[in-house]
Amino acid sequence: MKRISPKARAALKKLLGKRLLESEADRLAYAYDASGLTLVPEAVALPETTEEVSRILALSYEEEFPVIPRGAGTATTGAPLATEGGLVLSFTRMNRILEIHPQDLVAVVEPGVVNARLKEALAQRGLFYPPDPASFRFSTVGGNVATCAGGPRGLKYGVTRDYVLALEAVLPGGRVLSLGTRTLKGVMGYDLTRLLVGSEGTLAVFTRITLKVLPLPPARATLAAGFSSETAALEAMQEVLSAGLLPAAAEFMDRVTLRAVEFEPREIRGLLLFEFDGAESAVKEEISRAVDLLRSRALFLKEARGPQAENLWELRRSISPALKKLGSRRFADDVVLPRSRLATFLHRARQLSRAKDLPLAAFGHAGDGNLHLNLLFHPSQEPRARELRREILKLVLELSGTLSGEHGVGLTKKAFLPAEIAPEALELMRQLKRLFDPKGLLNPGKIFPPEVT
């Protein structure tokens, strides 16, 4: 891969002026994400318009230097990092909410809009954008679309792909595409919009995103339930869902996680957080039914609203930094399993972690089968940790699961892609990549492992 040539640098400076960042300090600021990896780009561009993005990608194609799209850098897989040098394309300045239309239940945004800011603007109009990754206060809508982010409310409301109606996207070479429709239905031709959602910036660059939004639920309540074991908690969750209740969220925290966040009382070794929303009467009825189902199993039950409920969800969002107390390094994976096999998986994964004498934390969106696994270790234990990670991910596939639910593949999971994706499907994906990006300039080195020659 070529580096950015003097000719290309001159053209970028002419286009962007001071919005082309080249100092070492500026480049280091864009050299990391939440994966723990550090890869320094050659330069950083801060475009403000679709036209500028188009001209940058046209220049990249002509001069053959890589371009790496980047949101807020909250990814856990290394997806927005410069693996081969090149130009990081940061969307911090393309951060406008262009339209909110209550009658159509549509919002149109630029990719740099922070998820939380969109939620706040919608709430002022009585509207609601459900996808809520743990990083929603910092992560951008463009980054969420690039990874098909989910979050706790995926159980009831689905994930990002369920809300993307249309995209304005720029291809390598600078061509601008308008994909999808503003309407809730539309089946004219292949669904290229859905293809680009979750493509991690490897096929095209988003410059405008049209989203479906919903009316804001008038009432919301949280029910916390603590159990004497992880298995008891997961079985109780199944009982609630099997009874016909559909909470907005059903979150799980295992005993290792609870120890990290210093949750009291200590005898709680499995915790569930349910969120119910809707009409006030419906929320009250669903909470009452859930309490009746859980009363005989749980060591404690607590209903919370308003600030008290937010405190419980802040506890959930504090898990990732709290786990650093248990190991200076970690392998983080977000796997998904059939709900009926979660308890079996966790029991067998715990056996594997005990055999390697390494702590394994499991928490997350158990309501839709999505567990965040954090394998914690110190540098001297890394070879053992790598072996354990392989064994655990193999177990996920044995139990009919998938190796990524909402974080994508990026750099940290690409070696495992052939274990889940059949060779024929993997080759078709490579062909799609070559069709969209024939010179391999857009976010190179991501998703696909090196081809065997």
Structure description:
The protein has 453 residues and is α+β, with helices and mostly antiparallel strands. It contains 16 helices and 18 strands. α1 packs antiparallel against α3, α8 runs antiparallel to α13 and α13 packs antiparallel against α14. The longest helix is centred in the C-terminal third of the chain and has 17 residues. The chain is globular, with a radius of gyration of 22 Å. The model has no long low-confidence stretch (mean pLDDT 95).
Give the count of helical stretches: 16
Outline the biggest β-sheet: 7 strands, antiparallel
Rg, Cα atoms, Å = 22 Å
The computed structural class is: alpha+beta
Low-confidence stretches: none
Distance between the termini: 19 Å
Strand content: 15-25%
User: Which strand order spans the largest sheet, edge to edge or round the barrel?
Assistant: 15-12-14-13-17-18-16
Helix content: 25-40%
Mean pLDDT figure: 95
How many DSSP-defined strands? 18
Shape: globular
Please outline what is shown here:
Helices cover 34% and strands 21% of the residues. The chain has helices spanning 6-16, 24-29, 50-63, 115-123, 141-147, 154-157, 192-196, 230-242, 255-260, 280-294, 306-317, 319-322, 342-356, 382-398, 417-420, 423-436, and strands at 20-21, 43-45, 67-70, 87-90, 97-101, 106-109, 127-128, 164-170, 176-180, 205-212, 214-215, 219-227, 249-254, 270-278, 300-304, 329-336, 360-365, 370-377. Helix 1 packs antiparallel against helix 3 (50-63) and helix 8 (230-242) packs antiparallel against helix 13.
